[in-house]
Specification:
Layout lengths: L1 E4 L2 E6 L2 E5 L4 H7 L25 H20 L4 H8 L3 H13 L1
Length: 105
């Protein structure tokens, strides 16, 4: 069932709340109120293959976990903490802090 109101055409489904079609990025581009500027990875957000946007907090958290796991792998190989810190461009304390949880398990 499609409803119309003063904000534009809206779509309605019994499972979902009312969704304004004109709020979708595709519609905003048509009206010229949305600039798809992309990021360092791709030129346009709407053609991005990534599941999580690098601008979102989830991406940053995932990157921290990957970095901590990489640091821990080097730590387990017996690489000096000073060298690990230099490789990741962080301080020694950061290496200890980020690998603490992995070292305790």
């Amino acid at each position: 069932m499609v409803l119309k109101n003063n904000l534009g055409v809206a779509q309605y489904s019994s499972k979902f709340e009312l969704v304004r079609v004109d709020a979708l990025p595709e519609e905003m581009i048509k009206r010229g109120s949305f600039k798809d500027e992309g990021c360092d990875v791709v030129e346009a957000c709407l053609t991005c293959p990534l599941i999580i946007c690098i601008e979102e907090p989830e991406w940053k958290e995932n990157q921290k976990r990957v970095r901590a796991a990489s640091m821990f792998a080097l730590f387990r190989l017996g690489i000096d903490v000073e060298l690990i810190a230099k490789k990741f461009n962080v301080r020694r304390r950061t290496v200890y802090r980020e690998t603490m949880e992995l070292r305790s398990s």
